[in-house]
Amino acid sequence: MSSVQLISGANAESADVAGKTLAEVRQAYQDVLNIDPRAEVRLGGKPVGPDYVLQEGDQVEFIKVAGAKG
User: Fold this and answer.
1) Between vectors from CA 9 to CA 31 and to CA 6, what angle results, nearest 5°?
2) What is the pTM of this model?
């Protein structure tokens, strides 16, 4: 099983998305997890870019930056 934990605020899901890029996953789960389009993406607390290829066991957090206008 190639499960990846996806977290956006109070929403979380374990998904079989290993091998896909963050950009692909963000687009596919934007509505399901209510991911803010401006949210930063972090893996292990560190920022990662949209071309990162997810690995089994990764925990990805989509974080809306506090104090961001708009």
Assistant:
1) 65
2) 0.87
